[in-house]
Protein: Fibrinogen C-terminal domain-containing protein
Amino acid sequence: MLLLCASTGSAVPTASSRSGFPTDCSHLRKTSPSGVYVIQPAGSPPRVVWCDMDTEGKGWTVVQRNSHDTEITWKQSWTTYKYGFGNVEGDHWLGTEYLHLLTQQGTYKVRFIVRNKANVTHYAEYDIFRVESEANGYPLRLGRFSGDGDDYLTSYHPKKGGIHDNMKFSTTDRDQDQYSGNCANSYGGWWYDRCQNVLLNAKNHILWPGFCDNGDCTSSLILVKPTDVC
Structure:
């Protein structure tokens, strides 16, 4: 578990890039509605994203959205995951490279949200969230957990999939997990160990133990924003 700030820059990203676009959704006015906006993290070209201005705290950048019966096939290649796919107004993946560029410009937190079959939403939040570089395999770095369930990302669960924190990203054409086979072949790209406790990037299978043990959550959402933990 990563408990120290892991940032090469300042703790709070600058309000806008040289192009005039904000570096993330946290720099929108609090009165702005949720919707499609253009941001430009440091070192990145401008990116179209969905900004969530309704979730607690406002100013969240949506980096993943999935629905159980999605039309998206999440078994995409490394390159497709790198640059992102889908529709920001619906199911999509921002792009692993852009997750790296977004989270390397400051200290970020993350909120994972799932909705179960009873239409009840649950969340897990980590006060530090960072995706390292492609050269390192886009490993996941997480901080301290809070939420309305149990921690299945930074705690080790040997009878399930092991752990997700500090795992490299795996896709169908780039196996970086700790399993003898390739976990991504079964579902899609994710930070696998042996293989998963939690899985949000899959078609007809959205899993978070305690919320949807059989992979039958109806939807998932991953939100990020700067944190003042450090």
Q: What stands out?
A: The beta strands are 35-39, 47-52, 60-67, 85-86, 92-93, 108-115, 121-131, 140-142, 145-147, 219-226.
